[in-house]
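During the no-cost extension, the postdoctoral fellow (Dr. R.K.) reprocessed legacy sequence entries with the updated structure-token encoder. One reprocessed record is reproduced below for audit purposes.
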Amino acid sequence: MKMPALFEYAHIDIPVLFMVLAVLASAIAVIYTKHSGRGQFVELQHLEQQRD
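Re-encoded structure tokens follow.
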């Protein structure tokens, strides 16, 4: 089954598919950024403790 026929069979519009993928990519980016920020905050706390 070819790709366009698959989309017609599943009733999935290509713009909707791209929007879903964009939302998923955005969610992953938010999670990664939050995790990275927390790691940097912990490192900052350790450096402040060493300084004091």
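The chain has a mean pLDDT of 89. The chain has one domain: 3-51. The remaining legacy entries will be reprocessed before the final report is submitted.
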